[in-house]
From TrEMBL, chains A, B:
CDD domains: HTH_LacI, PBP1_LacI_sugar_binding-like. The keyword Transcription regulation applies. Pfam families: LacI, Peripla_BP_3. PROSITE patterns: HTH_LACI_2. This is LacI family DNA-binding transcriptional regulator. GO terms for molecular function: DNA-binding transcription factor activity; transcription cis-regulatory region binding. It comes from Cellulosimicrobium arenosum. It comes from the Bacteria. Residues 6-60 form the HTH lacI-type domain.
DNA sequence: ATGAAAGCGCTAACAC
DNA sequence: GTGTTAGCGCTTTCAT
């Protein structure tokens, strides 16, 4: 059980120097002799002392912490493979620089706004990440107005309005998926969109459409859903009810795709014999559904790390390191196969 | 864009009072006239002022923040429905008292230990949650030695060594599952355990075993796995390779159960006709696999809220509110059915 | 190279 | 009731 809190004064006394000398050593600043430095470090180690983040935050006017606000409906919260991985990546970038992550999980827009306000007003964090960007999103401006540094995570090509962006190439994955289906002979390729309004939803739809056009395929039917299982099932029934149902469906995420397989199976439609299905995310369950899901995998952890490094650099007004983000992967499993209905391409 | 940071002094000046008056008002302490209070609140609102968490933390020697360390192997990270829901629940309990959550995601034990040390040494948080408790876990003692307040989240009956515990009744869910299978006529009911060493893994196994004994059923075969899909599949093959394979398998979580269905299907064994499968967690995908998964659902969000309220009370040395935790639910779907092999009970 | 001292913005004794 | 003032533990300028 620790006695009274040991402070910089104790360390200074033990090392026979002034408090500023100790401070200098712990901030990698010149002006302390090698001998003194040695004694100081020894004293600190003996006493088990480490600068108090509280006191430091006050005197430096920086908390050495950044914030992340997660807005998610309960249903989607534990579904989304994004946040856990993103946070794990963020952590890697943050601990390397001794930063902490302050998290808020909020249910709606009002609470979300309040969370950013609190971050700024209470000076709890120096900067924040912004994810789940929507089309015409006003939050970047609002956050900047609060005086917080900001790094936006958005798909490539999204309108960022001058903000610092870590972009992920959603389009590349979709293009590979469409090419894969095309090479299997499909030419009626539908798309089930995620929740409308998100730049991700849009980016994926656009890539689907453009790739079909490039390949000279007809722009297949598209249904708007909401990233949930129920929504994916509903959309699938809608597509299969069409007079001319698609032979392949590309879904905005894995959850909808898996629900889609289930919906098709219920109708007696076999996957992949009668219908090919492609997801997006590669959730851990994807290899274990029946049939195993063909899907797009992105390296979310690496975005997290890149975003964290960039935000820290921004906060410290330093040059952000240029990070090389690994490319998307396309994972072919059992849910896609050749068409039977039509001649191969 | 905000000008210079507004401080308590500005508010005091504008309201024509002293700083302490302002401080008193913002800490709900008596000793300020109604009139003064009104002027102070008005002034604060005009200036958009709010006490700085930084300064407050220093002078109160409390940060008004609590910490959560998540240790997870990459593979399991986005698989586990627990943490997102738990965090959402924690948030509810925390924001109500204006506390923040500081999060660390770590890959291994060494880093985990370092995270708690940093929490304490840097005085970043006032208390922490401890999850994923292992049998004979030394962390409660270590954390207490660091001077951090602690709330442990563990299944009922786990040895807590005097710590404050929010307990969830894993056993109740398992008992209902076994009774359900028994009522369907199964009497060879196997169990696939999660990763060894965790109190959850143990609690679930024990409940399975005790319930079988109560029902006069033979203690079926049990295989230790690791909560992963691959592990679940492997365990399933092992059980089905037995000279006398079980007619039902109870898995330690949904991911293993779903992988188990997949493994069985691959061998031409139909679920639920030839084999009944029960999971644990009720992940969002559970209703959408084929066949839909029968499983145990716990209200993780409510534990999070209870844990947060308890930790805040602990930190503030107040009486913890007694929280009523909702009971487990058992969700019957399509992956369980009557035995064909043997006579019904 | 080293030390003294003035903040950082708030809380809480204490005196008025 | 209300104002004054001394911390909280560190950083950082400025003499020495």
């Amino acid at each position: 059980m620790p006695r009274k809190r040991v402070t910089i004064g104790d360390v200074a006394a033990r090392a026979g120097v002034s408090k500023s000398a100790v401070s200098f050593v712990f901030n990698d600043r010149p002006g302390v002799s090698a001998a003194a430095k040695e004694r100081i470090l020894a004293a600190a180690a003996d006493l088990g002392w480490q600068p108090s983040a509280r006191a430091r935050a006050l005197s430096r006017s920086r908390t050495q912490a950044v914030g992340l606000v997660i807005r998610r409906e309960p249903e989607l919260l534990s579904t989304d493979p994004f946040f856990p991985q993103f946070m794990a990546g963020v952590e890697i970038g943050l601990t390397a620089r001794d930063y902490s992550l302050v998290l808020h999980v909020v249910p709606d827009e009002k609470t979300e706004r309040a969370a950013y306000e609190r971050f700024a007003r209470e000076s709890r964090v120096d900067g924040v990440f912004l994810t789940d960007v929507r089309v015409g999103d006003s939050r970047p401006r609002e956050i900047a107005a609060l005086g917080l540094d900001l790094v936006v995570i958005a798909p490539e090509g999204a309108d960022a309005g001058g903000d610092v962006v870590i972009s992920m190439d959603d389009g590349a994955g979709v293009r590979r998926a469409v090419h894969h289906l095309h090479s299997l002979g499909h030419h009626r390729i539908a798309h089930v969109m995620g929740a409308p309004g998100y730049v991700h939803t849009e980016a994926r739809r656009r890539a689907w459409q453009e790739t079909l056009a490039e390949l000279g395929l007809p722009i297949g039917p598209v249904v708007t859903a909401d990233f949930t299982g129920a929504g994916g099932a509903r959309a699938t029934h809608e597509l299969l009810d069409l007079p001319q149902p698609p032979s392949a469906i590309l879904y905005g995420n894995d959850l909808m795709a898996i629900a889609g397989i289930s919906a098709a199976t219920d109708r007696g439609i076999r996957v992949p014999e009668d219908l090919s299905v492609v997801g997006f995310d590669d959730v851990p369950l994807a290899p274990y559904v029946v049939p195993p899901l063909t899907t797009v995998r992105q390296n979310v952890v690496s975005w997290g790390t890149a975003a964290a490094q960039t935000l820290v650099a921004l906060v410290e007004r330093k040059q952000a390191p240029t990070v090389q983000l690994p490319p998307v992967e396309f994972v072919v499993r059992g849910s896609t196969g050749p068409t039977r209905n039509r001649r191969p391409a």
